[in-house]
């Protein structure tokens, strides 16, 4: 039967695509990666900035060029005006106009205007410009107008001579002005390209050394680690910097070390699971034989045997059940709880019998549970949870150095119902849980509170409680010892099941 999930998985239809997705990607070249993009972006941004600067710059250049022509004409006008009443010869006027690049020069003085020099006076003027006070926006607008539409127009330019009341006015063609503006624009463009390339190159090498280089090292370390995560040589070794990349490198190192440790633990768990699965087959047969032989103890008339036989049978039944569930736990999942209402006091008494506390040890086992209190749970799984917690408490109370004169050593299991939730507390008067065990409370092989422990007990207990939709947590207490609280809610009852009960009138 074909797999129905292959339609949504391209790698299932094309294995080569899946291999290509898992293969490490080769880093881009020097100019093809982030550094290359940064280089071109820097060039583009500087050119955009130069374009924004160009408009006021070329407008200022145009005003200066016209002002220079006006100042030259003003100097000639003052000299010509000083020759009055002698009129300047026509030939000299022509030379003066050619020297100033104008067609006519007019001097404005004492409220009158005097034409000092002229030759081939045009019949009309296309544009007039006053250089007395040119606003920036007007200057930019006139500069663009000259660049785009100029070159064949006759213009009139006028303005004051220095700080005096005397003014000068010239008539000229705008072709030399437009040509000078194009030369200036070309020079600005070339200079802008050189500045942008030089700046981008400096930024390129600086960023490549400060930023791109460490990023390439991080990326290379990730690729090497993903290809062979078990190799300690592939763990990233960062520098001692304090910037963001250095912090990211240290976090990557920590993450790779933790992941490597986790992968090693997973491999050990896989090997352990395989070994346990092999042992489980033979162990189950041995327990089955022991179960058949223990059944005959019921027929023995010895009162002592009759009192211990039921407990022995229950213990062997639990052992057989545990061996049956080993394979399901090896698949990282517990079997779904088979929930029913059970008397919690009876289950706690079974835990007490299983612990088999020596009466001479001085350790007390107290049960503060109502005889009628029931919990909606899987009896065997809840037994394992409470037994794990009580066994840990018993080991803490029997550890060396505990139980001095006058000390009380007690394990207390209490429970109460609040609405649809049953709260179970397992408390002891032991030394308490170490800080390392608190930090890795429910982590397998890391959360053990004693030397040689595996920490699997709390991990299994948490999984079983979560399967019931409940919670398990370590409770802070003002006195010495350790206290765990388990909260298990009842299953929600559907309306159809509620109505189908015999005592409900329909």
TrEMBL record:
> Which InterPro entries does the UniProt entry name for this protein?
2C_sensor_his_kinase, HAMP_dom, HATPase_C_sf, HATPase_dom, His_kinase_dom, Sig_transdc_His_kin-like_C
Give the matching SMART domains: HAMP, HATPase_c
Biological processes per GO annotation: signal transduction
For molecular function, the Gene Ontology terms on record are: ATP binding; protein histidine kinase activity
> Which residue intervals define the domain HAMP in the entry?
209-264
Q: Does the keyword Cytoplasm apply?
A: no
Q: Does the keyword Membrane apply?
A: yes
Q: Where is the Histidine kinase domain?
A: 278-492
EC number in record? 2.7.13.3
Q: Name one Pfam family in it.
A: HATPase_c
List, alphabetically, the GO terms of the cellular component aspect: membrane
Catalysed reactions, semicolon-separated = ATP + protein L-histidine = ADP + protein N-phospho-L-histidine
Enumerate the subcellular locations listed in this protein's record, separating them with semicolons.
Answer: Membrane
| Keyword annotations of the record | ATP-binding, Kinase, Membrane, Nucleotide-binding, Phosphoprotein, Transferase, Transmembrane, Transmembrane helix
- Membrane-crossing ranges are 38-59, 188-207
The protein's matches in SUPFAM superfamilies, at most eight in alphabetical order, are given as: ATPase domain of HSP90 chaperone/DNA topoisomerase II/histidine kinase
Q: What is this protein called?
A: histidine kinase
Question: To which species is this protein native?
Answer: Rhizobium leguminosarum
Give the source lineage, highest ranks first: Bacteria, Pseudomonadati, Pseudomonadota, Alphaproteobacteria, Hyphomicrobiales
